[in-house]
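subagent[fold] <- orchestrator: predict structure for attached chain, return tokens only, no commentary.
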Amino acid sequence: QVQLVESGGGSVQAGGSLRLSCAASGRTFSTYGIGWFRQAPGKEREFVALIRWERSVLYYADSVKGRFTISRDNAKNIVYLQMNSLKPDDTAVYYCAAGFRTTTRKSEYDYWGQGTQVTVSS
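subagent[fold] -> orchestrator:
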């Protein structure tokens, strides 16, 4: 079993920054990929970014490329999502998820956190 806990959400003005954290516990993460997803009200949950734990493979959605950076601290079992130049369209609940495959498909992820709210005002 894997437990994921997100933190770092909040309210910020457009152009501001936030750093989200995803703390993982439970089984070893050497074979897991960690993805960040977000869901805005009335919309589908969408992929944001992913990182392979052992290979540092990184991938971003086009909508956040150049503004968001995903990274990980293996010693602490934490994955971060640094979000810069935030826009009102980034407003959503952000979730981290763990899965065996390196994929943008949310159905391929086995474990999910509870989510953290990010609100960007104009």
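orchestrator: received. Logging for downstream: The chain has a mean pLDDT of 92. The CA atoms of residues 68 and 83 lie 4 Å apart.
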